[in-house]
């Protein structure tokens, strides 16, 4: 068990540190960076995963693809990708191509960095992104993409203090963050990533970095080290309390005194029906997205009982404020899933927030489940995301109530329960 004064003790166990392939991050990043192409060097399994998990339709021409590794490629020193890149440039006209590693070529010891450098041209750089599921949690692959973009962020001139929001969000949330900052008198320098590669923000010693996703510790630390930028250390902007603290702390870094307690109270009032449904409910979060700490904090503030909040990785410095807010909550890093299964079977929590891989077996036991991956794809940030965030937890309870009476023991025997009253 690890703990520091003022922080929630972290119980560290011995299970795997990830639950989904890092290639999943392509699903939101290719849509965010609209002049990009994501090329994955992988196997038929990688292609199957992307085509199914990301709902790819062949006629939609999405800006990502697989350079397939066949058995005959295993004896080659390096993959031959020149023709593939020519086709990508002709079909999609990207400003940047991200070359993502997967498990197999990493085991083959492919020199991805050298390969990316050799394939780059002055007009279309090819950037290496480590995304192997052997090493990274799937959301951390976004961190790798953002790190690859750092050399292309201009150096900000001294004396121009502004904020750069770090983390991929859709355009409506980005517009909301920008307008909220400007309403407080905070100058916005941009976002990392921006919607286009050729509009990356300038970052320098007078830049304040405001991370808005809890899985981006490495890129923020690197920017602070290399560009001497300041980093906002606050709660993440999820839920009324987290959003208030986030904006008040950010304003303080610009010498602005902001009191948003009335705004917070109004936001809580807006989701009062959802909070009433969550009040007293036992919620168990298994490790998956690395968003578990702020989600658990929101649930706790909403009146739910967080039985356990587990996460694949916890960075005590980056997550310090969230850990402070979770005092009294059981927090586990790299949880032993077998132990979790036994406790869930015994205690039967009211809601389980878990991965796509484990959701259906829990549902088969009659438990109410929320897919944790939905929180990475939905607009849940800041004031405009409060209602969506609350509904994500309430919706599975509403869905269960609309179903006929459910007998898990009958279902598990392979016989569908009767719909007759």
From TrEMBL:
The keyword Oxidoreductase applies. Binds 1 [4Fe-4S] cluster per heterodimer. The cluster is bound at the heterodimer interface by residues from both subunits. It comes from the Bacteria. The keyword Zinc does not apply. It holds the Pfam family Oxidored_nitro. Its cofactor is [4Fe-4S] cluster. InterPro entries: LIPOR_BchN/ChlN, Nase/OxRdtase_comp1, Protochl_reductN. SUPFAM superfamilies: Helical backbone' metal receptor. Its EC number is 1.3.7.7. One of its GO terms (biological process) is light-independent bacteriochlorophyll biosynthetic process. It catalyses: chlorophyllide a + oxidized 2[4Fe-4S]-[ferredoxin] + 2 ADP + 2 phosphate = protochlorophyllide a + reduced 2[4Fe-4S]-[ferredoxin] + 2 ATP + 2 H2O. Residues 21-395 form the Nitrogenase/oxidoreductase component domain. Keywords: 4Fe-4S, ATP-binding, Bacteriochlorophyll biosynthesis, Chlorophyll biosynthesis, Iron, Iron-sulfur, Metal-binding, Nucleotide-binding, Oxidoreductase, Photosynthesis. It is an enzyme of class 1 (oxidoreductase). [4Fe-4S] cluster binds at residues 21, 46, 103. GO terms for molecular function: 4 iron, 4 sulfur cluster binding; ATP binding; metal ion binding; oxidoreductase activity, acting on iron-sulfur proteins as donors; oxidoreductase activity, acting on the CH-CH group of donors, iron-sulfur protein as acceptor. HAMAP family: ChlN_BchN. Component of the dark-operative protochlorophyllide reductase (DPOR) that uses Mg-ATP and reduced ferredoxin to reduce ring D of protochlorophyllide (Pchlide) to form chlorophyllide a (Chlide). This reaction is light-independent. The NB-protein (BchN-BchB) is the catalytic component of the complex. Protochlorophyllide reductase is composed of three subunits; BchL, BchN and BchB. Forms a heterotetramer of two BchB and two BchN subunits. Belongs to the BchN/ChlN family. PANTHER family: LIGHT-INDEPENDENT PROTOCHLOROPHYLLIDE REDUCTASE SUBUNIT N. This is Light-independent protochlorophyllide reductase subunit N.
């Amino acid at each position: 068990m690890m703990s520091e004064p003022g922080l929630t003790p972290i119980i560290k166990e011995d299970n795997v540190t990830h639950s989904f392939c890092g290639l999943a991050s392509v699903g939101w990043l290719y849509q965010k960076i609209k002049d990009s192409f994501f090329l994955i060097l992988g196997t038929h399994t990688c292609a199957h995963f992307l085509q199914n998990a990301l709902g790819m339709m062949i006629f939609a021409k999405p800006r990502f693809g697989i350079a397939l590794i066949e058995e005959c490629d295993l004896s080659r020193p390096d993959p031959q990708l020149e023709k593939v890149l020519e086709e990508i440039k002709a079909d999609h006209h990207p400003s940047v191509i991200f070359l993502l590693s997967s498990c197999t070529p990493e085991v083959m010891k492919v020199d991805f960095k050298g390969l990316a450098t050799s394939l780059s041209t002055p007009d279309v750089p090819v950037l290496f992104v480590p995304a192997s599921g052997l090493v990274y949690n799937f959301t951390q692959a976004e961190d790798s993409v953002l790190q690859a973009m750092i050399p292309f962020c201009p150096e900000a001139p001294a004396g121009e203090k502004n904020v750069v929001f770090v983390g991929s969000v859709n355009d409506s949330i980005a517009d909301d963050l920008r307008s909220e900052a400007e309403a407080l008198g905070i100058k916005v320098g941009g976002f990392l990533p921006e919607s286009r590669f050729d509009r990356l923000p300038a970052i320098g010693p007078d830049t304040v970095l405001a991370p808005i996703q809890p899985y981006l510790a490495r890129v923020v630390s690197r920017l602070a080290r290399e560009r001497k930028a300041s980093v906002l250390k606050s709660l993440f902007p999820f839920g009324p309390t987290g959003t208030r603290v986030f904006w008040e702390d950010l304003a303080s870094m610009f010498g602005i005194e902001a009191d948003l307690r009335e705004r917070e109270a109004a936001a809580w009032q807006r989701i009062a029906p959802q909070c009433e449904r969550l009040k007293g409910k036992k919620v168990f979060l298994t490790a998956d997205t690395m968003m578990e700490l702020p989600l658990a904090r929101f649930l706790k503030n909403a009146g739910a009982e967080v039985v356990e909040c587990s996460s694949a990785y916890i960075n005590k410095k980056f997550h310090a404020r969230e850990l402070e807010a979770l005092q009294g909550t059981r927090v586990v890093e790299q949880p032993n899933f077998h132990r979790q299964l036994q406790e869930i079977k015994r205690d039967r929590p009211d809601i389980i927030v878990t991965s796509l891989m484990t959701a259906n077996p829990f549902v088969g036991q009659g438990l109410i489940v929320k897919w944790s991956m939905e929180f990475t794809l939905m607009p849940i940030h800041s004031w405009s995301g409060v209602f969506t965030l609350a509904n994500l937890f309430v919706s599975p309870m509403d869905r269960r109530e609309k179903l006929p009476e459910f007998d898990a023991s009958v279902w598990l025997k392979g016989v569908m329960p009767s719909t007759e009253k």
